[in-house]
Automatic annotation (TrEMBL):
DNA-binding region(s) from the entry: 32-71
Gene3D superfamilies: NAD(P)-binding Rossmann-like Domain (3.40.50.720), Winged helix-like DNA-binding domain superfamily/Winged helix DNA-binding domain (1.10.10.10)
Subcellular location: Cytoplasm
GO cellular component: cytoplasm
Complexes and interactors: Homodimer.
Species name: Micromonospora polyrhachis
One Gene Ontology molecular-function label: DNA binding
Protein name: Redox-sensing transcriptional repressor Rex
Domain of life: Bacteria
Biological classification of the source: Bacteria, Bacillati, Actinomycetota, Actinomycetes, Micromonosporales
Sites where the protein binds NAD(+): G106, V107, G108, N109, L110, G111
Gene that this polypeptide is encoded by: rex
A Pfam family reported for this protein in Swiss-Prot or TrEMBL: CoA_binding
Function according to Swiss-Prot or TrEMBL: Modulates transcription in response to changes in cellular NADH/NAD(+) redox state.
Single Gene Ontology BP annotation: negative regulation of DNA-templated transcription
Listed InterPro entries: CoA-bd, NAD(P)-bd_dom_sf, Rex_actinobacterial-type, Rex_DNA-bd_C_dom, Tscrpt_rep_Rex, WH-like_DNA-bd_sf, WH_DNA-bd_sf
Length: 256
């Protein structure tokens, strides 16, 4: 049972301490734990059991304990996890101890919504630039930031290194925007455009596509309907559940 406070590299601010190489699915769940922990802290909870945290984050507790063990966090028997300490540990591992600069490219319908989203700031991200190719949009002010032309990107990136570039342009423009971001030194991209981006090694791309999420839910709807449509007693040679579709619930299948 242990829960260690994360340690930095003492006296050497420029050196990033070694981090555990975590499974991608664990990394994807850490923000869920963090959101749940912040909520628990706001409600005045100092400690939480693995079951309580798992329920708040919407995962099973065995998976949560395994995830947190990767961080060297095992909680205290009979007490659970120290909420403030676990927040600190997860924020450290996710690199949220510094506010990362974000440039948003494409300030149309989606871009406007993202630019106005307060959740970025409250979770440690600063939108430092709004960029668009449309001269008519340049000069518009959103949330105190003025939209600038995409051609200004190299100058903006030289003034302040951009940690993450967000692409909210049409798919047809996304690859050239990604190339411009990479040329400006950006090594992490969040792509909302429905296309696959090609980037050099060392550049991380995450894709958000709500239509894909709907299609996955559609699959589960389809599956549920097919199960209820099955005869009560399957005929000879017929499986009672379609092969390969047994097991976990819908949320599990999407989340892992
Ligand atoms: N991921 C999702 O869940 C989701 C949801 C909605 C929309 N989208 C996608 O997000 C993108 C934006 O959608 P929208 O409705 O906001 O479109 P939009 O047409 O309203 O906005 C796109 C903006 O990108 C700008 N743009 C075009 N080419 C550019 C370039 N080379 N450099 C910089 N800016 C450029 C345009 O001037 C415009 O302002 C689309 O690819 C759309 O399919 C994704």
């Amino acid at each position: 049972m242990s829960q260690h406070r994360p340690t930095g590299a003492p006296g050497r601010a420029s050196v990033v301490p070694a981090l555990p190489d975590l499974p991608e699915a664990t990394v994807a769940r850490l923000p869920e734990y963090l959101r749940a922990l912040h909520h628990l802290a706001e409600q005045g909870n100092d400690t939480v059991s693995s079951e309580g945290l798992a329920a708040a984050a919407g995962v099973n507790s065995a998976k949560l304990r395994k995830d947190l063990s990767h961080l060297g966090s095992y909680g205290t028997r009979g007490v659970g996890y120290d909420v403030a300490l676990l927040i600190e540990q997860i924020e450290f591992v996710l690199g949220l101890t510094q506010r990362r600069a974000v440039a948003l490219v494409g300030v149309g319908n989606l871009g406007h919504a993202l630019a106005g989203y307060a959740g970025f700031a409250s979770r440690g991200f600063r939108i430092v630039a709004l960029l668009d190719a449309d001269r008519e949009r340049v000069g518009e002010e959103i949330n105190g930031l003025v939209v600038r032309h995409i051609d200004d990107l190299p100058r903006i990136a030289a003034e302040e290194p951009i940690a993450i570039g967000v692409i909210a342009t049409p798919a047809t423009a996304a690859q050239s925007v990604a190339d411009q971001l990479v040329a400006a030194g950006v090594t992490s991209i969040l792509n909302f455009a429905p296309c696959v981006l090609s980037v050099p090694e060392g550049v991380d791309v995450r894709k958000v596509d709500l239509a894909i999420e709907l299609q996955i839910l559609s699959f589960h709807e389809h599956r549920k309907a097919s199960l209820t449509a099955l005869p009560a007693t399957p005929g000879p040679g017929l499986p009672s559940v379609p092969i390969g579709l047994t097991g976990t619930g819908a949320q599990e299948a999407v989340a892992t």
